[in-house]
Structures are given as structure tokens and as C-alpha cells.
Amino acid sequence: MRTTPASPSFWRSPLRGPWFTSVLGLVLLVGITVLFVTGLVSYAAYNPGLSPLNDKTPDKGVLGLYLFAWPTGPHWLYRLTQGVHVTLGVTLIPVLLAKLWSVVPKLFALPPARSLTHALERVSLLLLVGGGLFEFVTGVLNVQLDYLFPGSFYPLHFYGAWVFFAAFVAHAVLKVPAAVRNVRKAREEGELVAPRPEPPTVSRRGALWFVGGGSLLLFATTAGQSFDGPLRRTALLAPHGGADPAQGPNGFQINKTAAYAGIDHAETAEDAWRLVVVGRSGRTVRLGRTELAQLPLYSSALPIACVEGWSTSDQSWRGVRLRDLAALVGYDVDPPDVLVESLQRRGAFRHAALRANQVADPRSLLALYVNGEALSPDHGYPARVIVPAAPGVLNTKWVARLTFGKV
């Protein structure tokens, strides 16, 4: 007689059981909680409550109540939170897949609901499985393929995260007490245990070591993207792994090249480019690169950190403070928010907004030089924004216009 997936005898792996599933579940309980928190923090770093230009999820409603003004210190904050978010997400993939494999018989169990509690558990399980796969797949594709979902990844990942985490919390409330008891048990029993198991080829603990080894391998081939030097070359699965793209002061990692952004070199030439600075009551100043270089210049040691999880170490930037540019157009005290516009023609965040606290920070610059040399075209020549703790896309390159007090 043929069995079906709804029959317990269809599933014969001797590895499945409450202990194996519970260990994986408790690991995910911690890991996914950290993922969710760092994801929300990353979303706040874009300041979506500041300006529609930065907000890729305009209909978030009550889900945006937690948003706050992103700080500028410590200067490595976004580098840490987004690096943890992406690296941990990749590292947890084997654990998630093993957990889904361990509970797959329950997806086919009949009847669909034996009680209200069981029905809630089944619904949370379906949302958990679907939401988990959606979040991990879209996140990995976006990291690997660099803006695979332009204009749509942000809302998809944001809403998906809330659906997934709501199901995750409901499932955890129902299952964590039992999971803790199962881990403490010395004997396996329950509906996940195969009634007619096949001969074992590996122990459950051996299977856990295998899953852990897979996670360790993914960690080792991803985490290096957040470091310079030899460690970056270990990031084989990261888009910005490998050696620095060039030699010299401008040789560190980039995201969008000048060619990709559609920058016309004729309009960035020193005799053609002018920065337009607009401020109080429409007061406007136009400055060439030579004129900017004659203003008081300051240095800041700041990294570049991007949503894909990669980052650089601190680079030495030199340029004009944003708050000094605000003073030129009438904001001598308490500089306001600023709208930054770029010459770029392709890619997201051609326009971006920065909060007043970011403008006021003395380390926030309109940079003209990096590591003692003029910016290269790929790093934003003739001028770029650099702000402590801000996501890379808000450190706008090829700046053409700054409008203070209007976002």
C-alpha cells in the first residue's frame, strides 16, 4: 500500500525528532530576533520619516511608529548594524533550511486543525515558512545582485519582515516552552519521530555539527566583506569580496561607478562644474571646486558602509563642513535639514535628504579629497558628501546642489 506525505510512515529519516527540531528552533529564536532588530535599525538609518526622497515604503503606516532620528555617533554604527544583519542572515541559511526540513511532515499532517491552538500553530507555521523563505531569498538576491528590485525591494523586504516576525513571535510563544523541555529530554518521542525509521547513517548531534559547519563556512566566506586587506579576499560569496579594486588612495571599494551612474566627464570638469548652495529666503551661492578648496577645510576619518553589508575601514576625508556651507546661505546657527542632489542619471538615491543633526556634526563634510588625494571619478569627483554613521547611499557622490531648509 502506497503512503502519502500525510501519513507518518511516509517520512522515514531517523534524524527527525523534537530534540533536533528544538535545538535548531532555539538557535533561530536568537538569530532571527537579532536579524529583525538590526533590519529595523537599518531602515531607520535611511531616515524615511524625514523626506519622501529617502522613504521607499511610503505606506508603512503604524509600522513606522518606531522610527527615530538616526544618530551620527558612534561613526561606525551603521557599519556594525548592517554588517551584522547581512552576515548573520547568510550564516543562518543552513539552520533555517535544516529547521524547515525537520518539520516538513507537519505541513502535510491531517486533519489541518484539531483545535483552536493547533489551528493557530498551523497558520503561524505556514506564515513562518513562507515569510522566512521570502525574506532570506529576497535578501540574498539583493545582496548578491545589487539592487535586483529597484524601487520595490525596500517595501517588499519591510512588509515581509513584519509578517514573518509576527508569525515567528506567535510560533515562539506556542512552542518555546516545549522546545526547552525537548532539549532537556534524553529520549526522543513525539509526532516528528518516524514510526518506521531507516537505518541511521549519522547521529542527530552529527547532523547538528554538519549544519553548524555549513553556517561556519558561509560566515567565513561572507564576513570578510566588512574588513580591508587579506580578510576581504575570504568573502567569496559577497559582491565586494576580493582585493581592493585599484591601487593608491582611491583604491578602496565602491558601489556605483561613474560610468554606471551616467556621469558625463565634461560636466565634472573643473571649468564647468559648479556647486549650487541654496538657503534662507532663496539665498544662493555658486562655488567651483577651486573656490571650495579655498574655504576652511577639515578632515574626518570615516568608513563607507552599504546596505549590502560590505564596508571599508576608516578613510581620511578632507573637505568643507556641511554646517559651514549652511552658514554661507544664512544658517549661521542651528543648520537645518538639507536636500542633496547628484549629477548621476542612473541608480537609486539621486536625491537624498540629511537631518539637521547630521548637517551640524563637525565630521560631516562635502569632501574634495580622500587619503591625501583628489577624489577619483568613481568616488564622486568633484565633490561628495560624507557623514558619520550614515548608509553609503546617503553619502551622495557627484554632488551638484545643496538646498538647506527644504526637504
TrEMBL record:
The keyword Transmembrane helix applies. Residues 269-404 form the Oxidoreductase molybdopterin-binding domain. Coiled coil: none annotated. Gene3D superfamilies: Oxidoreductase, molybdopterin-binding domain. The keyword Nucleus does not apply. Keywords: Membrane, Transmembrane, Transmembrane helix. The chain crosses the membrane at residues 20-46, 84-104, 125-144, 156-174, 206-227. It comes from the Bacteria. This is Molybdopterin-dependent oxidoreductase. It comes from Streptomyces endophyticus.
